[in-house]
Write a structure and sequence with these properties.
Udp N-acetylglucosamine O-acyltransferase, Domain 2; 28% strand; single chain; 271 residues; alpha/beta; UDP N-Acetylglucosamine Acyltransferase, domain 1; 2 domains; elongated; nine-stranded parallel sheet; 13-stranded mixed sheet
């Protein structure tokens, strides 16, 4: 059915107050509630549920069975009109769930150009940056932060309030309850095993820049000295933008940071 520049399947249920941009396509059995604003050129697949005070940008694709903007899984939540904000050109594959925030003071926020694979879950009050990939069944607890270009492999777990740094990668099945520093590779539980060299190369880091990050990684995580002392020395010795980003991330950690897993578990981290 063609309605005012939109392709709407006749079995879709769309509240009259919902706002749909031009060239939106809505599949069979989809439900869009009153406080949803959907940007131009979005695709809403079969049996997708868009609800809550949810603002969605342009060019997003929601595959079958997604539930976006539903109430947080938080016993303290009292049915307030909390919010979810989504940027542009994200892909939400089958059965992805994203919950709105649990507090009026802040939103759940997703940036742009992200890929959320089958069954991924983003909990209340999370912040996800741009160009992030979450593979099948990867899960973020409440208030987690995932920075730009991070990659969470299948069945990865991020504890509430934890941060995943830019260009970090989590190996399949890994879990963190501490912060994962930028550019590093997570393995197992709260472990790291080197730098995400492939990601750094793809992001345009030069050989010289990668070498400096390798030296910084060794200084912070493999020197055998107290991390606070290692940080104090590193702040004087390393000055490149990437190195400063890593140092600032570690300095801001409130839950501690993941630790190097040792020689027997190290991946290749050649610059």
């Amino acid at each position: 059915m063609f309605i005012c520049g939109k392709m709407i399947h006749p079995t879709a249920l769309i509240h009259p107050q919902a706002k749909l941009g031009p060239n939106v396509r809505v599949g069979p059995g989809a439900v869009i509630d009153a406080a949803v604003a959907l940007g131009a050129d979005c695709l809403v697949g079969p049996h997708v549920y868009l609800t809550g005070v949810t603002k969605i940008g342009a060019g997003n694709k929601f595959h079958a069975g997604c539930v976006i903007g539903d109430a947080p899984q938080d016993l303290k939540y009292q049915d307030e009109p909390t919010r979810l904000r989504i940027g542009d050109h994200n892909v939400f594959r089958e059965n992805v769930t994203v919950h709105r925030s649990a507090k009026l003071a802040e939103d759940t926020v997703i940036g742009s150009h992200n890929l959320f694979m089958v069954g991924a879950h983003i909990a209340h009050n999370c912040t996800v940056g741009d160009h992030v990939i979450m593979a099948n069944n990867a899960t973020l607890g409440g208030h987690a932060v995932v920075q730009d270009r991070a990659f969470l492999s299948g069945c990865c777990l991020v504890h509430q309030f934890c941060r995943v740094g830019t260009l970090a990668i989590m190996q399949g099945g890994s879990a963190i309850s501490k912060d994962l520093p930028p550019f590093t590779v997570a393995r197992g539980d709260n472990g790291i095993c080197g730098l995400n060299v492939v990601g750094l190369r793809r992001a345009g880091f030069t050989g010289e820049q990668r070498l400096e990050l390798k030296k910084l990684y060794i200084a912070l995580f493999r020197s055998g000295i107290n991390l606070r002392e290692a940080m104090a020395a590193a702040q004087k010795a390393f000055t490149s933008p990437g190195a400063l980003l890593l140092i600032e991330f570690v300095a801001a950690a409130k839950r501690g940071v993941c630790a190097d897993t040792g020689a027997h578990h190290r991946s290749s981290d050649e610059a």
